[in-house]
């Protein structure tokens, strides 16, 4: 498999360690799929890269993204031959999403260890 075999990219949330090379991948021809719950957070890490004087980071070009509704994620994924759906799983961040396949496998970004979840006393984290 090579990068050219990858058609689409979804990002669990837009913290810098999860999205830092997103635009580089878009520049290689990969379509960045943004869930509607995420579109206001695409640039939340830009200031961090700027503060670090990162010379290689490229901010996401909004016009090149494909924004889809999280409610339509199953249909979107089916069009790619993937049986599953994307869920909004806020808690770690407001823009956190998870890909859950019908096979039972899940792709999740940062999660708090289950034994630590009650310590946050946050209903959103517990529900996610
Ligand atoms: Fe994170």
From TrEMBL:
Pfam families: Lactamase_B (PF00753). It comes from the Bacteria. SUPFAM superfamilies: Metallo-hydrolase/oxidoreductase. Residues 4-111 form the Metallo-beta-lactamase domain. This is Glyoxylase-like metal-dependent hydrolase (Beta-lactamase superfamily II). The lineage of its organism: Bacteria, Bacillati, Bacillota, Bacilli, Lactobacillales.
